């Protein structure tokens, strides 16, 4: 069987089966770092397998067009015959059109992904500049934060050079010193872990493939798991109870509605608060989750790596 077909079948299998398997092992947040790695590995493997399959197909067609197909074996010779019109002009045009469409599709998706990332980065930069203007570039608040006058409790960070941590006046009034320290530790964990980059990548993929569950569900789950990773960092420094108290204090309903934070911002109490509180109070067993996630990650990475290695070591295998 043609290696390109094998890669496409592998990518399709991961796309269909991946979300259900990963959700089973990541739902409780027992091992959030392993879970994020597994989601990214499966997403990356699907993309690499699909691109490799398209590149292999196009490469075989182009090479065979140069009339060196008889020097190769299997489907290389067959594609050479098709490219030269050996099976009729209609088949020849269809194959060449498919190769051109595949190349154009890959280039278009890459350009759209780059554009989505650029827009997200620009939105973050514009919001950060607006925060500085709104605060009048006054001396930073506690822990180097920028304090916004708002009746809505909120704390979030924005990546950049320099990065900023924003806290509203209502949140500052609602938190005591220990809770504030825990919240700031949470936000700094996002910044040190470069969680914004991961969030931007998964968000761009979900916009590129809005009908593919692997990317849409994966973006939401990865965002939730990133919050749990930051919770763990804050809990190790300030105790889980302090983090829980801070999350509950920030999540209490307020009468006022403030402007929404940008999509690239990561806020301490912005996502899955109830689940995160339950997780901090009743820690799930992470041994089973780690084993399952490691197995899923290895399985996801093994297919494309093995296929590409075979193609490099023995080019003829690509057409067996």
Automatic annotation (TrEMBL):
Record's keyword terms, sorted: Hydrolase, Membrane, Metal-binding, Metalloprotease, Plasmid, Protease, Transmembrane, Transmembrane helix, Zinc
InterPro entries assigned: Beta-lactam_resp_regulator, Peptidase_M48
Required cofactor names: Zn(2+)
Transmembrane stretches, start-end: 34-58, 70-87, 93-115, 291-313
GO MF annotation terms: metal ion binding; metalloendopeptidase activity
GO terms under biological process: proteolysis
Family: Belongs to the peptidase M48 family.
Protein name in the entry: Antirepressor regulating drug resistance protein
Organism: Mycolicibacterium chubuense (strain NBB4)
């Amino acid at each position: 069987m043609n290696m390109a077909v094998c890669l496409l079948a592998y990518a399709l299998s991961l796309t269909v089966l991946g979300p259900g398997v990963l959700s089973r092992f990541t739902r409780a947040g027992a091992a959030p770092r392993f879970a994020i790695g597994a989601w990214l590995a499966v997403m990356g493997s699907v993309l690499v397998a699909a691109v490799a399959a398209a590149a292999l197909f196009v490469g075989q067609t182009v090479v065979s067009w140069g009339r060196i197909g008889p020097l190769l074996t299997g489907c290389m010779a067959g594609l050479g015959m098709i490219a030269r019109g050996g099976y009729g002009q209609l088949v020849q045009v269809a194959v060449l059109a498919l190769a051109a469409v595949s190349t154009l599709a890959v280039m278009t998706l890459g350009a759209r992904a780059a554009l989505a990332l650029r827009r997200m980065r620009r939105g973050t930069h514009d919001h950060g500049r607006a925060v500085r203007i709104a605060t009048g570039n006054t001396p930073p608040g506690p822990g180097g934060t920028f304090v916004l006058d708002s009746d809505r409790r909120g704390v979030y960070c924005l990546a950049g050079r320099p990065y900023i941590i924003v806290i509203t006046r209502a949140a500052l009034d609602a938190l005591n010193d220990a809770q504030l320290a825990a919240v700031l530790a949470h936000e700094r964990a996002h910044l040190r872990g470069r969680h914004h980059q991961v969030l931007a990548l998964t968000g761009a993929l979900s916009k590129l493939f809005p009908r593919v569950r692997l990317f849409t569900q994966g973006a939401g789950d990865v965002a939730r798991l990133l919050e749990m990773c930051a919770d763990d960092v804050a809990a190790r420094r300030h105790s889980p109870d302090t983090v829980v108290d801070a999350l509950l204090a920030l999540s209490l309903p307020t009468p006022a509605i403030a402007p929404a934070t940008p999509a690239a911002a990561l806020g301490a109490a912005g996502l899955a608060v109830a689940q995160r509180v339950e997780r901090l109070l009743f820690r799930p067993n992470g041994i089973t989750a780690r084993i399952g996630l490691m197995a899923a990650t290895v399985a996801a990475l093994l297919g494309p790596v093995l296929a590409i290695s075979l193609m490099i070591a023995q080019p003829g295998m690509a057409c067996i």
